[in-house]
Amino acid sequence: MYILGIESSCDETAASVSLDGVNILSSVVSTQIEEHKKYGGVVPEIASRRHCENILDVVDEAIRKSGLTLEDMDAVAVTHAPGLIGALLVGVNFAKGLCLASGKPLVPVHHLTGHIASNYIAHHDLKPPYLCLVASGGHSHIVEVLDYTKFRIIGRTRDDAAGECFDKCARALGFPYPGGVYIDKASADGNPDTYPLPHPKVAGSEYDFSFSGLKTAVINKVHNAQQKGENICCNDMAASVQKTISEILVVKTIAAAKAYGYKKIALAGGVSANSGVRNALSKACAENGFEVFMPPRELCGDNGAMIACQGYFNFINGIRADSSLNAAATLSIEKPL
């Protein structure tokens, strides 16, 4: 079964063709990072305009590289939520037009379920149920993957997401956008114990995250040092930030796995490319006798392959949409539409 997947939730215009979900025949990503870098973050209006300009060529290239034609597709899957509303609308409306013209079924895909599905591409032996830590610029969730299309949230961020915390801390240290990758690189030459940082907790919610206080603590340390004419070692602070975020994410995930009886843990989302998070989770799983699954770094960021993969599972489980499908800036992973 051939599925065309389309992704446009933020600043990557992406498309992919999959065979039976896990076999990727093509994957094309057009990124806008260099354009948004000068603004220090994604500008929604610019992102939407670039999606409009790029989506036809990206989809056309993905189909061409697969060696197939649009007529060969069994369905078209598209990210409809969550994300930047203008960016999402470009992908959703393009997919709706494509399905209207070709007569192909339209399959809606929740962005976070797509990130989770990236693990199926890399690990064909991974099957639900299992626990997944989904961490990105806009999301930090601990999710029970009960089935390929059924999810339950155990924990979530109450304020900032892990990826946002990485980026804001990086900005305070003078690193360009997107800052997470620069934190990761700098931390390799730093001492993670130089700057003690807080591990915020959410009262009464054992598995929920809070990164706002950590972000503020780092910014305050950097600004106070600057005001006093003191030097902050960027490498040491980067290493301290990475260690702290990794510990917060992993400690809560391992605790949730023990409480809910899971022996398989997966990692997904843009932050899953971070070496500190990957190493910390791998070590913790090994110490507790858990299996761990992580996507390769090329599948950690937004891409069409993960949407095509999850689109396949949605399609075979009867999840469809018609021309009334709309984009949604926010939507729980527990809801199919």
What do these coordinates show?
- By secondary structure, this protein is an alpha/beta fold.
- The chain has 10 helices and 10 strands.
- It has a 5-stranded mixed sheet, sandwiched between helices. A 5-stranded mixed sheet has the order 8-7-6-9-10, sandwiched between helices.
- α2 (44-66) runs parallel beside α3, α5 (162-172) runs parallel beside α7 (212-227) and α8 packs parallel to α9 (275-288).
- The two termini are 23 Å apart.
- The relative contact order is 0.19.
Keyword list:
alpha/beta, 10 helices, globular, single chain, 337 residues, 5-stranded mixed sheet
SSE layout and pairings?
Layout (H helix, E strand, L loop, with lengths): L1 E6 L4 E8 L3 E9 L1 H5 L6 H23 L8 E7 L3 H18 L3 E5 H12 L7 E6 L4 E8 L2 E7 L5 H11 L6 H9 L24 H16 L6 H27 L3 E5 L6 H14 L2 E3 L10 H13 L21
Parallel strand pairs: 1-4, 4-5, 6-9, 9-10
Antiparallel strand pairs: 1-2, 2-3, 6-7, 7-8
Brief summary:
The protein is α/β, with parallel strands linked by helices and 337 residues long.
**Count of runs of 4 or more consecutive helical residues:** 10
Helix content: 40-55%
What is the radius of gyration?
A: 20 Å
- Strands ordered across the widest β-sheet: 3-2-1-4-5
How would you spell out the order of helices and strands?
EEEHHEHEHEEEHHHHEHEH
Which structural category do the helix and sheet elements fall into?
A: alpha/beta
Q: What overall form do the CA principal axes indicate?
A: globular
> What's the β-strand tally?
10
Low-confidence stretches: none
Assembly level: single chain
Distance between the termini: 23 Å
The amount of beta strand, in percent, is 15-25%
Mean pLDDT: 96
Q: Give a quick account of the main beta sheet: strands, pairing sense, barrel closure.
A: 5 strands, mixed
